[in-house]
Structures are given as C-alpha cells and as structure tokens.
Design brief:
With 195 residues, this protein is α+β, with helices and mostly antiparallel strands. The protein contains 7 helices and 6 strands. It has helices at residues 41-44, 46-59, 85-101, 107-122, 128-135, 172-185, 187-193; strands at residues 3-10, 16-23, 28-33, 68-75, 138-144, 149-153. A hairpin with a 4-residue loop joins strand 5 (138-144) and strand 6 (149-153).
Length: 195
C-alpha cells in the first residue's frame, strides 16, 4: 500500500439539522435553508447544493417522481467555505431521510450517502469532511492508493483550534482543478510545496 497524504481532522461543536416532509402538492424536492451563512454563500452554492441533495436522494433510492419532498435545513453551523458545511448538510440529510422513511441507516451508511452528496460540491471528494461530520471527534486521515483510512484519535489534553474565515465563498471543485492544472504545468513547483 502506498501512502500519499496524512492529516488530522476534527469536527466542530456547531451542527446542521435537517427535517424531511412528504407532500403531494408538487413532485421533486424543495429546500428551505435556514442555516446561518456568510454573505452570498447560499446563492453562489445553490446549484452545487441542489446537485448534492439529488445525489443523496438517488443514493438512498428516495422517490421524488411520484411525491414531493420539502427538506428543511437549520442548525448553528455557519455556512462558510472551509468549515465542512456542505458535508454537515449531507450527513444531516441522510440522517433525516433515514429517520423519516425508516431506513435504519448505520453510521457507515450515513457516511456513504454523505460522500455521494459531497460529489455535488466537490466532484471527487476526499471523504474527510463527510467522515468528520458523521463520526465527530478527532480523526487521523491517511490517503492511500486504495481506500482512505480513518482512525479515531484521542488526546490526553484539551486542544484549542482557531478557525478564521475570509468570508470569501469558493468552489472547491474549481480550486482543486486549478491546483491540479498548476501541478501538471509545473511539477517541480508543486513538489517543492510538499517538502
């Protein structure tokens, strides 16, 4: 097994909630998003968010052809690029769908559904954000040439984490694509970053 990347990941205390209601007044789904957010986040991420919801619904085989769903997001996790808000949304949605439709999803199944939803935001997600959102706590992440490895970690002391937001909303898919293009253009530059 070839190890490619390692990182420590932690969940934050804030969270996203989701509620699901079936309706016969329309077909498809409608999202009501009452999460706090930085300016323009929800507008700029609207297409990615809709794709994400669709991917979770498809993964869990939830019928939105013969019925409509109203999906309500709330909670105290502020939507801002870099905090894992999209993953928290995917996890909350998978849990709400499981509860509403009696799916009995395990945490592993919730995580798998959230991973599928993250594809709407990230194209090819690492699995880091949805795993942190699903399991919480502190995780050691190792990317390999096979499936990523996540291991729960404990600390023998408290550890403070500072998160600062620029307030700028960014598309992870675009940023990752830009970095990949730069890496392909100038491999020596990229390798120098990793030393």
């Amino acid at each position: 097994m070839c190890i490619r990347d390692r990182a420590l990941i932690t969940a934050v205390v804030a969270s996203t909630t989701a509620e699901v209601h079936v309706t016969q007044t329309f077909k498809g789904f409608k999202v009501v998003d009452d999460r706090p957010a930085v300016a323009n986040y929800k507008t700029q991420k609207a297409d990615e968010a809709a794709q994400s919801v669709k991917l979770v619904l498809d993964h869990l085989k939830i019928d939105v052809v013969s019925q409509g769903l109203i999906i309500h997001f709330g909670g105290d996790l502020c939507c801002v690029s870099g905090i894992g808000a999209s993953a928290a949304c995917c996890v909350a949605l998978a849990r709400a769908l499981s509860e509403h439709f009696g799916l009995g999803l395990s945490e592993e199944q919730v995580n798998a559904a959230a991973y599928e939803g993250e594809k709407g935001y990230h194209g090819t997600p690492s699995g880091v954000d949805n795993t942190a959102s699903t399991y919480g706590g502190l995780l050691k992440f190792t990317r390999t040439d096979r499936d990523p490895i996540f291991v729960n970690q404990t600390l023998d002391h408290k550890c403070g984490i500072v998160f600062a937001s620029t307030g700028i909303t960014a598309s992870t898919t675009q940023v990752v694509g830009d970095v990949a293009a730069r890496k392909q253009q100038d491999p020596a530059w990229f390798d120098g970053l990793l030393r």
